[in-house]
Design a protein that fits this description.
Shape: globular
Radius of gyration: 21 Å
Largest sheet: 2 strands, antiparallel
Bound molecules: 3-hydroxybutanoyl-coenzyme A
Order of helices and strands: HHHHHHHHHHEEHHH
Length: 311
């Protein structure tokens, strides 16, 4: 007789998807909620760095593009909170865990956006890294997560292209604009490599997440894929990546690159990055200011349900 564990193992082993109604080990449910929730938090917090430049975009066209991108990130957060709720999580609880520091969001969003070139570099490097990390998640074993990723990845491609096109335009501009792009690249290159998480030998979740098909590649594999993809793009752009050890290794078929400052990563993840306090304070304030909207929506839904029962 096939047990529920057998069915779960056969589904994972057969690269098929686990759906909300399927039995799953508590550990699978917990780690998928953890990853989806932190992914959703990252999307929502990620609206802040670029949102900082909406009122200062250099043209109506650039403003419209940036508005569309920031709105996309909000939508990505909502898809992902909805995916987490199919596992029994509650988005109000998840938001409270974010605001109280009991759940994480991506380290990359704790760095300041000091010039308009940062908007282009975030699109090019941060959304480029997100694409490397998220495309494999379209094959994640948890169905709702994988399906959310398919829609999100289509929009990430637009995010990456608009950022790269913005930088190409600036690089055809003045010396000052070219220097802004190089400065933004210098500040975001290493934090973009950190986005992929700690090295595999320091990752407590990767082995189990890979065994369960939640993740399809390790942190180091995806980090290397990102470096290999980005080095030629930097050359075409005409910027220098701030790593003197970066060079093609024909034997490996990959670029070798320098050491990442894991102490910086740990400090940022622990809440001691340049903008952590500001990012969480803004999120806390937005949540408080939006309470009336949530109350009105709940009251409206309750009255509609009451009318339906009375009809
Ligand atoms: N920032 C903050 N915390 C991080 C991190 C980062 N860049 N990388 C890893 N961590 C945390 C993990 O959450 C874990 O802590 P936890 O157990 O308390 O959750 C710890 O460090 C150890 O890391 P692991 O590698 O063991 O953890 P995972 O197996 O979960 O791998 C991950 C980390 C690769 C980020 C994985 O969770 C993942 O692929 N998540 C989905 C993608 C995602 O969240 N991307 C974030 C950016 S979203 C984005 O870029 C939006 C775009 O529009 C710009």
């Amino acid at each position: 007789m096939t047990t529920v564990e057998d069915h779960f193992d056969a589904t994972i082993g057969g690269n098929r998807r686990i759906e909300p109604r399927d039995w799953m080990p508590d550990g699978y449910r917990a780690t998928v909620i953890r990853q989806i929730a932190q992914h959703a938090h990252s999307e929502i917090i990620g609206m802040q760095p670029e949102g900082n430049w909406i009122t200062r975009a250099p043209s109506l066209r650039r403003k419209a593009i940036l508005l569309a991108k920031v709105q996309d990130e909000a939508g990505h957060g909502l898809y992902l909170y909805s995916a987490a709720e199919t596992l029994g999580a509650d988005r109000a609880d998840l938001t409270e865990m974010l605001i109280s520091g009991r759940q994480k969001y991506s380290s990359i969003f704790n760095y300041p956006t000091l010039s308009y070139a940062d908007v282009g570099v975030i699109g090019w490097l941060v959304d480029g890294a997100a694409i490397c990390n998220q495309v494999p998640l379209c094959r994640s074993s948890y169905g709702p997560y994988a399906r959310a990723m398919i829609r999100i990845c289509k929009e990430e491609s637009f995010h990456q292209r608009q950022g790269y096109e913005l930088l190409l335009t600036m690089m055809r501009g003045s010396d000052a604009q070219r220097q802004m792009v190089q400065d933004a690249t210098n500040r975001f290159w290493w934090p973009s490599l950190m986005m992929f998480g700690p090295p595999d030998d320091a990752s407590p979740n990767t082995a189990r997440s890979m065994a369960w098909g939640v993740k399809r590649h390790t942190n180091d594999e995806l980090r290397q894929r990102f470096v290999d993809m980005t080095v030629p793009q930097a050359a075409k752009l005409g910027v220098t990546l701030p790593d003197p050890e970066l060079k093609w290794n024909a034997g490996r078929g990959h670029y070798d690159f320098g050491s990442i400052d894991w102490e910086e990563f740990a400090a940022v993840v622990a809440g001691n990055g340049p903008c952590n306090a500001q990012r969480v304070a803004v999120r806390r304030r937005a949540h408080a200011e939006g309470a009336w909207v949530r109350e009105a929506a709940s009251a409206y839904a309750a009255r509609q349900a009451q009318r339906k029962r009375a009809a």
